[in-house]
Amino acid sequence: MLADVFGLCFLNTPLFGSPYVWQGGKKGKKAAGEKGKGGKGAGRINGHHQENGMENMMLFEVVKVGRSAMQSVVDEWIESYKHDRDVALLDLINFFIQCSGCKGVVSGEMFRNMQNSEIIRRMTEEFDEDSGDYPLTIAGPQWKKFKTSFCEFISVLVRQCQYSIIYDEYMMDTVISLLTGLSDSQVRAFRHTSTLAAMKLMTALVNVALNLSINMDNTQRQYDAERNKMVAKRANDRLELLLQKRKELQENQDEIENMMNAIFKGVFVHRYRDSIAEIRAICIEEIGVWMKLYSDAFLNDSYLKYVGWTMHDKQGEVRLKCLTALQGLYHNRELNARLELFTSRFKDRIVSMTLDKEYDVAVQAIKLLTLVLNSTDEVLTPEDCESVYHLVYSAHRPVAIAAGEFLYKKLFSQREPEEEGAPKRRGRQSPNANLIKTTVFFFLESELHEHAAYLVDSLWECGAELLKDWECMISLLLDDPMPGEEALTDRQETALIEIMLCTVRQAAECHPPVGRGTGKRVMTAKEKKTQLDDRTRITELFAVALPPLLAKYAVDAEKVTNLLQLPQYFDLEIYTTGRLEKHLEALLRQIKEIVEKHTDTEVLESCSKTYHALCNEEFTIFNRVDIARSQLLDELVDKFSRLLEDFLQEGEDADEDDAYQVLSTLKRITAFHNAHDLSGWDLFTSNFKLLNTGIENGDMPEQIVIHSLQCTHYVILWQLAKLSEGSSRKDDMVNLRKQMRAFCMMCQRYLTNVNTAVKEQAFTILCDLLLIFSHQMVSGGREHLEPLVYSPEDSLQSELLSFILNHVFIDQDDDTNSTDGQQDDEAVKIEALHKRRNLLAAYCKLIIYCVVEMRTGADIFKQYMRYYNDYGDIIKETMSKTRQIDKIQCAKTLILSLQQLFNEMLSELGHGFDRSSSAFCGIKELARRFSLTFGLDQVKTRDAIAMLHKDGIEFAFKEPSPQGEGGPPLNLAFLDILSEFSSKLMRQDKRTVHMYLERFMTFQMALQREDCWLPLISYRNSLQAGGDDDTMSVMSGYSSRGSSVRSKKAKPPAVTAGTSAVKRKLPEGLCSESSSGEVWQQSIQTPVMMPSPHLTSTAMRDPKRGRDDSFMGVYTPQHHQTPMDYNRRGTGLMEEDEEPIVEDVMMSSEGRMDDLNEGMDFDTMDIDLPPSKNRRERSELKPDYFDPASIMDESVLGVSMF
């Protein structure tokens, strides 16, 4: 018996009734008339057909090639089976063996004399697992269609044999026995391939059973119809024939059910929980097909529970198959009654899967809930629906679109029926009016008012017709409500205008909002035509409706700002072709009135952008719009000149009303100057006079100064734009050069202003100007602009750096902008941090583009760990860019930052500090982080590392001992910090650095062993540890972080040809910066330790801005009171700028910050080696019994399902 051979424990109860009687353990008898026909495979060699001396293609080769006429292949095999079924079955057995990737062949003798279990064991021993791949997993075009052909072969085989051969109690018994045994194999290839074959065989049998069931029903109806006839008209012969046919069909049905029973219990029940996800996915996919095809037999709780259990699988691929299988069932409303119990039991799990970490699974879960919603509204509770609603704001577009379809089905599927023959209702009387209101209500209730574009994009594919009903939206805003209809509130009108703008933008641009797009998609011809039609309709509707809308909401800044963005999406040609000039005049009048009424920056910028969109020289309306714009600007500039003159004359006597008038006019001019060239009006003179007066008197209102600085900035940029085009005179360049330099000096003077907002504005503009007018501006064929190049003086560089130190590297509580008790407001803190990040980024760009000296970056780099959470990404990118520009200078800057921190620590703790203190350990940890940024390529960073050690050694011996002659130098402990970079030195460079170190040492120093000399001992050991090999140490700095001496065990040498070629050369990086050609050549005598001033920051920092004394310029966590343990390794600060060592792709970006202070050890890298390929070891493997905890959540284990 098969159960005895394979040790299978079948369930006691049969699948479809009577248990299946197996004949697989013995070879069945041949059918009558088939004896003697090629008993030993006449005309065959090794079981393969011979024809004219040429061997035909084997079944495996035919399927691999992917012949399209699979039915002819099967027909040939059937003819072979009818000729000699043992030989044909041997071919089929070898086909399954070869499809598993096994090179072994089952011989005829093995087939006749060995049990299936013995055959499988023999094939397992001969299995070549060296590659680990097999046909179902091999990549490449040759195997791309293999799986499809393999499955098609099995399906066609059963279909062609369904009327005779499958009932001979031999072929199917042998195949099922073989596949059941292979599916229980320890070899993955056997298990995977046989499970797929068995499941496809089961699917084919389900189709056969379904056809038999249909034939039985038809036969029964014919029998009943014939029997109900009158006795005289009844044909007894026909009754007997129908009765006999029904009996045969029933016997066949019982036989097929026994086969399916054996496959289900022998393969599916064991393999649906296999340790391999692909195998589990195959089982779930196929059971979904069975339940859909033959719902009468399979669609019940006994089978649905397997899908329900597997929805808790830990692999997204398997969960996805569960959902797609269920979608096929819920799609058929006739099956909903049979799914009620399953739905009630597993509904919560399906709802939770909408938040699955695998986006594909989440999408299918939402689609499944949409099908459930279509079947009945009572199943899903309001809480279930709300959990899906908020996903319309998801950044992942497929998830959002699926959620949008769910929302549309739930809220918008109920439309008011229109009477037949009645005229179509439009405007607020249209059927869409209530649906649009519902959209507005949902948007407001979701409390995500800044994401209307996301909501529109989510609903676009399923509700574009509704969202494009702009006529109804305009009517809801302009028309009076009908009797008994409730009017929209002010808040609802604001939301409707925002949604309307988003729909117009989506229709005109045809791409999703920022954050959802995966790149530009090529539009089809149909989509392009739809886009043009929509733009035409938008223009025709809003060209007429926009002026009255602006007139109605002219005083509401938020509504006006959104409405003024609509002309950007107009087809301006329609103003002329559609004879809409009068509406254009009305629009220009409304914009002018809005400019005169409002001083809000956003409103004014929207007006400026609208003028810019309308002033297009390609269209005939340009002259009309240009005249209106020029008239408006003339009035504004004249008014500003008049008001400014009076304001400056009054001086201290000017009242607030005068200041307000000047400010409001200046705001309007600045907003327009951003998008329009106002060079025709001399705005530089008036603004410069205003700024100069503010410097002299010191009482100029803050906002006036800020907008005056911005306006002057625009004046200079517009003049530069003209010069870049080459259309200006030489006098213009001289004038621009004078104005630019004068304005830079003015901004520099405002850096010391008492008002923080003014200083930040001056700093930002100054950084922009220095970057624009740097040496970079002459590149790209613009050499004629060379007279405009401006390089900042040392005093200006110092002031810029001081500003950064005093206004960026501060505590949150020190931010002077967070006043009036707003420190607790999280939004205010985030905004303040965003502003400080912009300031730091502006200065770092000056370093990257060599506008300021690179050494000024030392004051930035030393803050890396201390402010990692706030500015770590900016500082890291700056270090990376500076290294690309000049590796040596970047290394000198890094060591300079460490020296500054070391001197700051000495000034606070004194020369007798404890090297285990948090301050010293923090500097050492920072050095380790710096070391990691150099990557693994020692040849590429050789010069830079050598120069870094040179500067570090000189600094360590620069200051004499405070204890007098015989004591350690003041900065000797810096060598302990410098040792963090020793692993980055090449072997020959370590010798050279050690020789250079010995020139600074006296004979007595080499003999010292006291604790105060441990940094020197430690550093010397770090240079000698790798002296005999050239291996890169990726474990530097991961051992003990105490003050004890570290010893490292080196690997065997791995010297490449390139390395050996330069083995005896001194590195160029060891040369001094002069061109004398000396390499580490100092005086032969030991340098005299002359006193020299302490190295401090390159810019004096305001002491009031310093942190608490205990920090000492090193990093400590900003949100925890406990000090940081530097012996622990935080993954968040691992730096591999050039060549990453390890990156955990499963770690989310949010989790990396959380792991900043988490103690994790990255000393070694674990390598996941493939399993052993040794046959002896494989034979000793234990059976791969299922461990539920390995693939399923704990929530599904031990829970009663039904």
Automatic annotation (TrEMBL):
Keyword Cell cycle: yes
Recorded coiled-coil stretches: 209-262
GO BP annotation list: cell division; chromosome segregation; sister chromatid cohesion
Record key words, sorted: Cell cycle, Cell division, Chromosome, Chromosome partition, Coiled coil, Nucleus
The keyword Coiled coil is annotated on this UniProt entry: yes
Residues spanning the signal sequence: none
Subunit organization: Part of the cohesin complex which is composed of a heterodimer between a SMC1 protein (SMC1A or SMC1B) and SMC3, which are attached via their hinge domain, and RAD21 which link them at their heads, and one STAG protein.
Annotated function: Component of cohesin complex, a complex required for the cohesion of sister chromatids after DNA replication. The cohesin complex apparently forms a large proteinaceous ring within which sister chromatids can be trapped. At anaphase, the complex is cleaved and dissociates from chromatin, allowing sister chromatids to segregate.
Protein name as it appears in the record: Cohesin subunit SA
Species this chain originates from: Cyprinodon variegatus
Source organism phylogeny: Eukaryota, Metazoa, Chordata, Craniata, Vertebrata
